[in-house]
Design brief:
- This protein has 14 helices and 12 strands.
- Strands 1-2-10-7-12-5-4-3 form an 8-stranded mixed beta sheet.
- The longest helix is centred in the middle third of the chain and has 26 residues.
- The termini are far apart.
- It has one domain: B-lactam Antibiotic, Isopenicillin N Synthase, Chain (Jelly Rolls, Sandwich).
- The protein is an alpha+beta fold and 373 residues long.
- It binds 2-oxoglutaric acid and fe (ii) ion.
- It comes from Daedalea quercina L-15889.
- This is Clavaminate synthase-like protein.
- Keywords: Iron, Metal-binding, Oxidoreductase.
- It holds the Pfam family 2OG-FeII_Oxy.
- InterPro entries: DIOX_N, IPNS-like_FE2OG_OXY, IPNS-like_sf, Iron_ascorbate_oxido_reductase, Oxoglu/Fe-dep_dioxygenase_dom.
């Protein structure tokens, strides 16, 4: 398995602690556990999830991912996403800007659309490399099914805590509708040293959708916690997924649920010498879902929005989930980059003035200005 031969996460590197949520307890309706999930989702927007029951599916996906990355580059390039905002297929390393200077990312992805997986062998969005096709039923479908179940359960718990009528978030994330939901395997190359920590391999970002279900073995993921201006590693824990809230859930909830900034840098110390793999399932709202705070469905959300400055720009971007995703994917491509102003156009919901303080972008680049494509 990728990363398994690497040394453990070093003990003398500072990490940001996350709450540990037990999926089985949440699913069984355990109130204390649900309160813990709520605390995690509203304060940092990141948490560990244990007892998710997806270990075997995760291992099979890592195998699919490493076989795909081992294909010749020319073959992978036949499935490249392109520059128009398609988020499914292969993403080569170095095609995205990571900052306003136009520095390049160094991660490659294979992104498999939930819609193509559920409809297989019918093609909904696009075709994939042979390593994906041959594992569609044995590895990818089981992982997608499990991830939809886990994220669907978390969404229904958050739905109730937000005071929304039953099934509101479920309808916005109906897996039978077309959406940007995707399973992604990420590979980043080994580095001689982790000293260039501030050179992100995957740029500082908030996730584009609603809930992310992430699995990794090596360090490298960092968060910029609220009220801080220092990036901190999140330590991978065996058997624990890392879950986080993305932009659309932040918007639906009128900012109650936090879509927190994160990035991937070289793994710490000796781990940097190893290639790094990670796996994510992104649950995203249906393509046609309008991104807006659900004020008319929940007094709690209406109350939160009423207390927020600039609420119209933050929570009524005037686009659908599909348009939001397309803009963020397309405008990050280096082909569409023409300087700091164009870099702004890919940004999401987070408070970018805090990453400006942490040095990744300049003070002038603030996401609030970004409303639509
Ligand atoms: O690789 C990781 O640990 C995080 C990846 C990530 O943030 C993403 O793909 O959005
Ligand atoms: Fe992310």
């Amino acid at each position: 398995m990728p990363g398994i031969a690497a040394p453990p996460f070093p003990e003398d590197v500072t990490t940001h602690p996350l709450l540990v949520i037990d999926y089985q307890l949440v699913k069984a309706g355990h109130q204390d556990e649900i309160e813990k999930l709520w605390m995690a989702a509203t304060r940092l927007g990141f948490w560990y999830l244990k007892n998710h029951g997806a270990d075997a599916e995760v291992d099979a996906m890592f195998e699919m991912g490493s076989e795909t990355m081992a294909l010749p580059l020319e073959e992978k390039m036949c499935f490249e996403q392109g520059d128009e905002g398609m988020s499914f297929g292969y993403k080569a390393a170095g095609v995205n800007a990571i900052d306003e200077k136009g520095n390049l990312d160094s991660t490659e992805f294979i992104n498999v659309a939930k819609d193509d997986v559920l409809a297989f062998p019918t093609v909904v969005h696009r075709t994939y490399p042979s390593t994906v096709v041959t594992r569609m039923n044995t590895a990818i479908r089981p992982f997608v099914d499990k991830s939809l179940e886990v994220n669907g359960t978390l969404l229904s718990v958050l739905n109730a805590k937000l005071g929304l009528p039953e099934g509101t978030l479920a309808r916005l994330h109906d897996s039978k509708q077309k959406s940007g939901c995707v399973a992604r395997v990420i590979r980043s190359p080994p580095k001689e040293t982790s000293m260039d920590e501030d050179k992100a391999m995957l740029s500082a970002h908030t996730d584009f959708g609603s809930l992310s279900f992430l699995h990794n073995h090596l360090g490298g993921l960092q968060v910029l916690a609220p009220g801080t201006d220092k990036w901190q590693y999140v330590k991978p824990l065996p058997g624990h997924a890392i879950c986080n809230v993305g932009d659309s859930l932040h918007i639906f909830s009128g900012g109650i649920l936090r879509s927190n900034m994160h990035r991937v840098v070289a793994p710490p110390k000796e781990q940097a010498k190893f290639e790094r793999y990670s796996l994510v399932f992104f649950t995203r709202a249906s393509d046609s879902a309008e991104l807006r705070a659900l004020v008319d469905a929940s007094p709690l959300i209406a109350g939160a929005v009423a207390k927020t400055s600039n609420a119209q720009a933050r929570f009524w971007p005037g686009v659908t989930a599909k348009e939001w995703l397309q803009r963020r994917v397309r405008n990050q491509r280096i082909k569409n980059f023409s300087g700091p102003e164009s870099f702004k156009t890919w940004l999401g919901t987070e408070d970018y003035s805090s990453i400006a303080k942490a040095g990744a972008i300049s003070e002038g680049t603030v996401a609030r200005e970004v409303v639509a494509a």
